[in-house]
Amino acid sequence: MMSSIPNDLIIEIFLRLPSKSVARFRCVSKQWGSILCRPYFTELFLTRSLARPRLLFVVKFDKGDFHLFSSPQPHNPYGKQSSLLVTADFRMNLSRYLLMDFRQYASGLIYFLDDGWWSSNDETDAFHAICNPSTGQYAVLPNLRRRDKYLYSFLGFDPIDKQFKVLSIFPYRFSDSRILTLGPGKLRWRKIHRPLTHRPLGQGICIDGVLYYISRLSDDFTSYFIVCFDVRSENFKFLDDEDFPYSGPKLINYKGKLGLFFRNYDIADAIELCLWVLDDVEKNEWCKYAFYISGDDKIAGFLDVYVIGVTATTGEIVLAEKNTCRCKPFYVFYFSPERKTLQRVEIQGFGQSCDKNHHSVQVFLDHAEDLNLNDAKIFKQSQGLDIIWKRPIAQYPEE
Q1: Mind listing the domains of the chain with CATH numbers?
Q2: Which of 98, 100, 139, 189 is the most exposed place for a label (fewest CB within 10 A)?
Q3: Domain of life of the organism in this record (predicted)?
Q4: If you average pLDDT over residues 308-336, what whole number do you get?
Q5: What is the pLDDT of residues 156-196, one digit of tens each?
């Protein structure tokens, strides 16, 4: 019967399925496997997925569990309704690793780290894990020996060679940085040169093959600068002559460029946001914008929301509540700079997982499913990271 269906129609049907289903259907027959493994289909699937992006939610519970959800991303949230309703689907559970913490989202993968900061022993191993929320796959990475009290790590993606890399920095050791390239075969940390000792602050973001994060000199508590790390060449660049007012800015992807959101907390009945966009990396030139968001009864508490980012297609500023619980709804807010309008979107689906306590939520925009991630041989199929207790044998880099 399948032989009578044109391949174009078969491809169109499969393009409408989630990536986890496509991965299963590859094993049904040689014909389906041949169609679904072609680079043409893989790239077309990613293009379609980018055209219908999703919201990704990472909910952390008191015992250290993480639950991952995703929902459709509203294309036009500005209707006549005062509030829209979207249902989030449960994706996977990362179970009971008490000291593991969320670190970063990059190109469809989520990165978790236990850096061992709680240990008085400077030689404690740091533990790394990544997961693919679209499929429930995970990978436990080789341990890295923590050489002093602090360790800062970031996940980057090189879109040219299609490679993910984990960058780890020891801030008080000159030139002491490590990098791990994800892929098939034996994974091993490598030592790379870092031309300046610095201490990263907060989470980083990877945009078009460049990993950005805010930092300061390891012995200076007043001066801040932007670090640009090219994931492919593994070279550092420092933007240190822009005296921006550091107040915990949110790093975002603003139409393919680095954006920094600064928030004014002195306004009681509104949110004042300043957006700095890195217009030219080589010249260190920034464009600066200001936005004034009035709650209009849609945002109950301004201190309880934070900026997620800016949508890739429409340029809307999106905010979300910091916490969720069973006894109240969870909201995401869309602000249109052109219309000067604010729309509230209620996200349902957390209730069965939450209790009366408040649980922190990380939200990410424009999540797309990529079949190339499904093909990565570093992943294992699982419904969760219970196996996380079985750490891999440590593989330390040569001095």
Answers
A1: 1-51 (no CATH), 52-389 (2.120.10)
A2: 98
A3: Eukaryota
A4: 87
A5: 999 998 889 999 988 776 667 899 998 877 888 999 988 88
Q: Which two tokens stand for residue 217?
A: 């000199």
List residues bridging with 237 in a β-sheet.
Answer: 228
Helices (H), the chain: 7-14, 19-25, 30-36, 39-51, 371-375
Exposed / middle / buried, residue 390 (Cβ in 10 Å: 0-12, 13-18, 19+): exposed
Check: CB of residue 105 under 8 Å from CB of residue 132.
no
Coil, strand or helix: which one is 10?
helix
Q: What are the CA-CA distances from residue 359 to residues 55, 64, 202, 203 (Å)?
A: 18, 11, 20, 19
The string of DSSP codes covering 305-364 is EEEEEE-TTT--EEEEESEEBTTB-EEEEEEETTTTEEEEEEEES-TTT--SS-EEEEEE
Task: Give how far the C-alpha of residue 25 lies from the chain's centroid of Cα atoms, to the nearest Å.
Answer: 28
Beta-carbon neighbour count of residue 388 at 10 Å?
19
Angle between helices 39-51 and 7-14 (to 10 degrees): 40
CB–CB of 323/360 below 8 Å? yes
Q: Which of 318, 362, 372, 371 is nearest to 342 (CA)?
A: 318
